[in-house]
Amino acid sequence: MIEVIPLGTGSALPSKERHYSATVVEHNKSLFLFDCGEGTQFQFLHAGLRPTRIEAIFITHLHGDHYFGLPGLLSTLTLLGHEKRLTVVGPQGLQAFLDSIPSRMKAHETSLDVNLIEIDPEAEYTVAYDSPNCQITSRPISHSVQTAGYRFQEKDRPGNLNVAYAKKLGIYDYTDYRALKEGIAVTNAQGIRIEPKEVVGPTHRGASFAYVTDTMPCEGGLKLAEQADLLYHEATFTEEHQQRAVQTRHSTAKEAATIAKEAQTKHLLIGHFSGRYKDTSILVEEARQVFKNTDAAEELKRYAIMDTVAPSEHLKP
Ligand SMILES: [Zn+2]
Ligand SMILES: [Zn+2]
């Protein structure tokens, strides 16, 4: 299971209603931060999240509303004596930005161990982060500067082992149980081969989340969103301001919904709202005409995504 917590759903100009872009994915004990607009660390406090739990940070692009919170957050992690290696992924120019910050805020001059990865703008697909539990991939999306969309994919887990049934089949050893869960057949004392599918239940499919902002509707966003359990897609404007969306290379709510529909996403959260909309209901209404399961992302709300059990496999009684 993962939980997605939007911390900021506003766009470029400050507003009293919303914060700058940032969204956290909570998985096991780790946090993964997508964008880090100004004030993100205060939203961590409001969300009751400890920044020292951050395992990796992913910046979409170098517009201030998406990364100006990074120096402050890194400075705080340094003050807290954060010891774990922190991966920071973003577009080209992010390293130069961090290098331009004087003294102790400069990540490489402190005890903070930052593994900075700049995404190649020409690459169609990048594995931005990989661990035994999850993988985060990135694809270019279509904005006025180099921008990366991301997809968080929890890795599949083997199904549950029916220990009672395994014992009935003459398997008593823990190393055999582990092998069966890893998909390896074992042999019992009578020399009979036991296949994993006889005793191990259906695979748990990992939860997936796509983070697509800022962008016009594009191929990269569509691919990232493909059958995602949850898609956060920017919807800066309503249909009325469609021209403005084209000029500034953003999306309307309806366009975000079209991406969600074409990608067969399960649930769409729209965000990155222009400050002109005090109330997001018109954006949600326009999106729902195309994709029913749409909601306006609510700051600090937790959106839980459960892993699912593959339907095709069946366990013997
Ligand atoms: Zn923005
Ligand atoms: Zn932007």
Helical amount: 10-25%
By DSSP, the count of extended strands is 18
Gross morphology is globular
Helix/strand structural class: alpha/beta
**Which band does the percent of strand residues land in?**
25-35%
Q: How many individual helices?
A: 11
The CATH architecture term of the largest domain is 4-Layer Sandwich
Q: How big is the Rg? A: 22 Å
| CATH fold label of the largest domain | Metallo-beta-lactamase, Chain A
The CATH superfamily of the largest domain bears the name: Ribonuclease Z/Hydroxyacylglutathione hydrolase-like
Termini, distance in Å?
26 Å
Low-pLDDT sequence parts: 312-317
The largest sheet has its strands arranged as 6-5-4-3-2-1-17
CATH class of the largest domain: Alpha Beta
Mean model confidence by pLDDT: 93
Q: Describe it for me?
A:
With 317 residues, the protein is α/β, with parallel strands linked by helices. It folds into two domains: 264 residues, Ribonuclease Z/Hydroxyacylglutathione hydrolase-like (Metallo-beta-lactamase, Chain A, 4-Layer Sandwich), CATH 3.60.15; 37 residues, no CATH class. Helix 10 packs parallel to helix 11. The chain is globular. 43% of the residues are buried. The structure holds zinc ion (2 copies). One zinc ion (ZN) binds next to helix 2.
